[in-house]
Amino acid sequence: MKCQQCEKPATFHITELTGEKPHELHLCEQCAQSYLTQNPSGGMPIQPSLAGMLHHQLKVADTAKELAKLDEQVCPICGISFYEFRNQGRLGCPHDYTCFGSELDPLIVNIHGDTQHSGKHPKHHRQSSQDQTRLIQLHNDMKAAIEKEDYERASQIRDEIRKIEEGES
Amino acid sequence: MRGSGPESDIVISSRIRLARNLAEFPFIRRCSPQDRKSIEKMVHDRLQAIPGFNTLYYLRVDELAHVDRQFLTERQLISREHAEAEGARSVAIDNDERLSVMINEEDHLRIQVMKSGLDLHSAWQQINEVDDQLESKLSYAFHERLGYLTACPTNVGTGMRVSVMLHLPALVITNQIEKVFRSLQKINLAVRGLYGEGSQAMGDFYQISNQITLGKSEEELIGQVSGVVPMIIEYERKARDFLITQNREDLHDKISRAYGILCTAQTISSEETMHLLSSVRMGVNLGLIDDLAISDINKLFVETQPAHLQKLRGNELDTAGRNIERALYLRRYLQDRGKEHRDERN
A7, B72, B145, B321: which is deepest, by most CB within 10 A? Predict the structure, then answer.
């Protein structure tokens, strides 16, 4: 489904309850953000808006200079910047939850009212978050080594990946 | 949508979805085309190695024609986003179309189980088993404190979305639906309309789902949705009773006219069909129409959608062509069904 205001995919589905009948809106992240910020008297949407929440949280927490600095933060594993996350509403890799943790945790509390998982755990899961992050990094390094035709390095990396993976079984 | 299962006069379907990501790859948005291919192949190979999973239909969504992708969307086996995305992606579907596993949607894996009627507990039992089996072959991205890690922080934790699709025509007619929306909003449940061609909310179908995915167990989240649904069912039944006792003739007339149009129209839009079928569905439930079953109406909702009509016809149709084909399909189906009923009675 496309955004009603531009050509991007609609990722926000807002139900307005201010009129006589509920009114549905389908917007992309950016249009949803501008709709929500430009429409203070139009009633609150029932869906929490990720971009809207972040916008609010950052406005309260940071000066423009600090925000610009925060936006420049880049995840060393997947390369996504905080600015990109803010714009797209999607994270780049599992490590982002650690790397952008201090900004993400308040957002997660806003959305879920909690920061502690209490549901099921994978039964076979034996890798720590650090090992999982290391695996993504090693896969990236191996791709780069193969592209450079550095097969000796690629084989060293493969051994390292195996060591971590064997640790899990 | 089989029209069976508990409370199926009002509850169309129960659905649970789990979002999962593989530990060793970045999330989809940061995947290279090569990463997407590797994930797709890896998941496919490992699915094949799970007993019972090698009988799943496995479709490469990126290799399908537009109409086939739309067909899968109309049957709720893939999301619109999955149908419209780019790059290597696929879906595995079981024989009775209750289980589907999307690969490379917004998350690496989106597992979904759908049941007819209000049946969240058996949906959870099935999806939990499927998840355990997949996890024995795949390493999921999991955080000690935050649970299952997802591309969007709105899904982190259990990665679980529990939804129930309800048919609430009497609450719409009696203008009480907004009140229901507001009370659901207060307890952190989301309400969405059902969308047809274009993107307008249509008919009187509403999907209720959990918004929170972190901090509560899967059973608690299911309990929250399945606890509130019987109350909405009761409101809807009361509203239907009110309508039929206070205004039986008007209601019967509205429903009979809707049925009449569906039986005789020569061209009909998807939106009008949804509205009319909604009335007829309520008529069948209230005993005002006796030659159709709920399963017939549910079937018509699915099969009068654009891609279904084009598959049935065997060629592409523009909007006008689809409207004619839809009317023809409805006329034939309802005539045949009516005749069968008359024969059964004689």
Answer: B72
Stretch B38-42: mean pLDDT: 94
Mutate to test the interface with A, among B35, B214, B219 (most CBs of A within 10 A): B214
- Contacts with A15 from chain B: Cβ below 8 Å: 181, 191-193
A77 CB neighbours in chain B (<8 A) are: 26
**Which of A5-19, A37-51, A111-125, B13-27: highest mean pLDDT?**
B13-27
% of residues, chain B, pLDDT over 90: 76
**Rounded to an integer, what distance in angstroms lies between the CA atom of residue B42 and that of residue A11?**
28
pTM as predicted: 0.83
As a whole number of angstroms, the distance between CA B92 and CA B77 comes to 9
> What are the extents of the domains in chain A?
1-45, 51-112, 129-166
Q: Say yes or no: A90 contacts chain B, CB-CB below 8 A.
A: yes
Where along chain B do its domains lie?
11-239, 247-344
Name B231's Cβ contacts closer than 8 Å, sequence gap at least 6.
Answer: none
Q: Which residues contact B99 (CB under 8 A, 6 or more apart)?
A: B56, B93, B111, B112, B113, B126, B127, B130
Number of Cβ atoms within 10 Å of the Cβ of B123? 24
B325 is in an annotated binding site: no
Instruction: Report d(CA B36, CA B29) in Å as an integer.
Output: 10
- Say which of B29, B145, B199 has its CB closest to residue A116: B145
What angle, 0 to 180 degrees and rounded to 10, lies between the N-to-C axes of helices B218-246 and B120-135? Answer: 150
Task: Please tell me which of the candidates A10, A46, A118 has its beta carbon nearest to residue B185.
Answer: A46
Reply yes or no on domain B11-239 having CATH 3.30.590.10.
yes
Give the other-Cβ count within 10 Å of B248's Cβ.
Answer: 12
Please, what is the average pLDDT of chain B? 91
Is B24–A135 a contact, with Cβ atoms under 8 angstroms apart? yes
Q: How far apart are CA A73 and CA A80, in angstroms?
A: 8
Asked whether the predicted pLDDT for residue A36 surpasses 80, the reply is no
Q: B75-127 pLDDT, tens per residue?
A: 999 999 999 999 999 999 998 899 999 999 999 999 999 999 999 999 999 99
Q: Is the Cβ pair B26, A123 closer than 8 Å? A: no
Q: What confidence tens digit (pLDDT) does each residue in B249-295 have? A: 999 999 999 999 999 999 999 989 999 999 999 999 999 998 899 99
B140/chain A closest Cα distance in angstroms: 7
Separation of alpha carbons A44 and A14, rounded Å? 10
B4 annotated as ligand-binding = no
What is the spatial distance between Cα B81 and Cα B120, in angstroms, rounded to a whole number?
A: 25
pLDDT-based confidence at residue B188 (cuts at 50, 70, 90): confident
Q: Does the distance separating the beta carbons of B142 and A122 come in below 8 Å?
A: yes
Instruction: Looking at mean pLDDT, say which of A35-49, A105-119, B191-205 comes out highest.
Output: A105-119
Q: Which residues of B are less than 8 Å from A120 in CB distance?
A: 128, 131, 158, 217-218
